[in-house]
């Protein structure tokens, strides 16, 4: 480090223990050998219950079935499904044969599906029949009409030239050109067991690409972040270590698998540590999550803040026994201090951790520890994981900022993605020449290396020349006794440049008025930080993962307030 770096915003995680040099398949074999009779996977709605030995056997059956279809090392296999057993089996089966799994958002429409399949050059699509009101089969027929009247493997798509196989996972009547999951698995029984990883098995490297995850960008098309065995295995391993997960733990995973949170921190972390994956439902529901924790005696639970809020506010929350819980992860969006306190006190998660990261970093960059003081765990997102570098830079100059000064968080190390698939320009924009991944998040770093996220670079509000950080205002408004949730954004203003707007969810309708909120602020926060606009809402626009889409709040507010014509409207 440069002289004087100690006073700058830079931190590096411990390098005391080496990183794991294993493929996902090798990790799974090791866990199945060490803990053959411990439960690996419990899927509550399906009644599936597999021990690690059984799980490995089922994964290898699926892998052989894929191999029988011609899937091999480097081939792309897309999975378009909710949280089901087939999703987990596909995740590990593709890794066993070196295929690259492409995660498809369950909320995608036909246009988005076509883009992901075409851009990733997917050869095989595994899909369920639909989710809620969305008919997946109808959308597949729309983008691949050649499969409607043909036999499986007897068609070619004009607009998706790489696509060769369609597989229906679960119930429903498949398209004529679509095979069934069970048929695929049965066909694999004829494949040589010794060749489960195919002829490529011995040539698989921990640094091979194994996953493409599409980021939910606010503008333009999503970008496909390419992750390797090395990225995923080690991030899962180090996150589990910081939570002190062991083979005696049982993790309730209500977050979606298609996102890193569910796939890496959930499924993969359990596989590395030998813990049990508990899947409460296909999609998040607060009551089924609470009941699954009670029934399976889960010791850990995951979620974004909105999930925990819905669990805590469920009318029958007091009727479930959550005494088995000790830890978990709250991540995905800023974690309100008051919510975290309730999770620790009311859900018995005395060792709950906060994690921060993004898809491009596999995903976790920083995380609190189970023994960190409560105040640290409710005011920061922890310190960098081992083998992870973090620095805070001035967004304008790119220079490392002084300690405690907000700037853009950048990270470097094993966790950084290989790049965006078939998008070198976007890769260069995200990862600089020295290997630093620029997150786009504003943060501060204290003397002990703990990080605090203060917002997005693009979300920062500049009002009359004053920098306003939405997170700071949100944390303050959470202390109002009537406020359940709050989101703050900037909207354009002809005189001040931008003004502060707050969308607030109340614990009960009518508990507070616009004037009550502003009176609560006066004298406690600076006048320029008090929201000019306040709107009481029942819900927020969200992604499938439960992330609140602030850019959509801004768009809606601009339209409702009639601010479209102001020239300095901030971009999403």
What does this structure look like?
With 572 residues, the chain is of the alpha/beta class. It is built from 16 helices and 29 strands. Mean pLDDT is 91; it is low at 567-572.
How do you describe this structure in short?
By secondary structure, this protein is an alpha/beta fold. Helices cover 29% and strands 24% of the residues. The strands form six sheets. Strands 3-2-14-13-15-16-17-18-19 form a nine-stranded mixed β-sheet, sandwiched between helices.
Q: Which tags fit this structure?
A:
572 residues; alpha/beta; nine-stranded mixed sheet; eight-stranded mixed sheet; 29 strands; 24% strand; globular; disordered C terminus
Share of β-strand residues: 15-25%
Strand order of the largest sheet: 3-2-14-13-15-16-17-18-19
- The whole-number mean of residue pLDDT values reads 91
Report how far apart the termini are.
Answer: 36 Å
Write the layout of secondary structure elements.
Blueprint: E1 10-12, H1 24-34, E2 39-43, E3 48-51, H2 52-68, E4 76-80, H3 85-97, E5 100-103, H4 110-120, E6 124-127, E7 130-131, E8 134-135, H5 136-143, E9 165-168, E10 179-180, H6 181-188, E11 209-214, E12 224-228, H7 229-243, E13 250-252, H8 260-273, E14 276-279, H9 286-296, E15 300-303, H10 305-312, E16 327-330, H11 337-346, E17 351-357, E18 364-367, H12 374-379, E19 383-384, E20 388-393, E21 407-413, E22 419-420, H13 424-430, E23 437-445, E24 451-456, E25 461-463, E26 466-468, H14 470-477, E27 483-493, E28 497-506, H15 514-521, E29 533-536, H16 550-560
Parallel strand pairs: 2-14, 4-5, 4-6, 5-11, 6-9, 9-10, 13-14, 13-15, 15-16, 16-17, 28-29
Antiparallel strand pairs: 1-20, 2-3, 7-8, 11-12, 12-22, 17-18, 18-19, 20-21, 21-23, 23-24, 25-26, 27-28
Helix pairs in contact: 1-2, 1-3, 1-8, 2-3, 2-6, 4-5, 7-8, 9-10, 10-11
